[in-house]
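DEPOSITED CHAIN:
***
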Amino acid sequence: MKKTTSILVGLLLSIGIVTSAESHVIKGAGATFPEPLFKEMFKEYTRVKGQEISYEAHGSGSGLAELKKKTVQFASIDLPPDTDPLLSYIPITIEAVSIIYNLPGNPELKLTPEILADIFSGKITHWNAKEIQKLNPEITLINLPIQVFNRASDSGTSSLFSDYLSNATNKKALSLVGTQVESNEEICEKVSVTVGGIGYASLHQAIKQNITYASLRNKKGHYVIPTVDTILLAATTEAAKKSPYKLTNTTAEYGYPICGLSWLVLNKKQDRKMLELLKWMTQEGQLLSEENAYPPLPENIIRLAKTRINAITKLR
């Protein structure tokens, strides 16, 4: 009987009716920021390696909660890594938080961290406020109410935005006003249909949905828009090479000031399939970055990723 069963299972496996343990799905959850890049990476990885991967994007906090419950094999976060000795944090991509807005005529605005702090805390309530108009004298701003959209406090995008405002303005406790939404995609959708709307979202989503985004004053006093080049400048300063955990408010002359790393978080003991995926994402997978409006990881970050991957214990 056992022999007959074994033959039957082997036959079913050969024609694809039964899935073997070797073809198990790798499950992940977390940040919405890297989701578009992950979608392309995982599609290509499945094509070349035959390994299926599922990823649910509900925010960094949600991903960590799922990892803690052991319902996923990895979480993705845009938050600064913790120091949990049982977990490994692998840098996967670099993000930029763009300041998106919807104004008649789509004027190209310059904004400062002080003005942003006052807008998102409710102190500046109209677009023709003297602070904004003085900074943009070539544009005639109308008396239009500002409608603020933001993300949950445990969102990695919110963490980067708040960290930038705190560091650039020396205001350590900012309480954000406005309508809260769940994802980068949704905040772009809300701003795009709301005249007078403003929010913050990933550069990828802003480009994808064709929403105008602002030039921000950086630490050196230059007004910079997020691009692959200006994001990479923030990630390759001497300070970033020594400690890449915080890239906001960069000292790079023309670096964009709201940048940070997205990390994969996972247990320090992993099977071969997960280790192979990590190595591919930090090497071959980086070739998919720029065409999707994400900067490829610079060499200093790739070295960090390799060191951390090599420190993970491979399960037999």
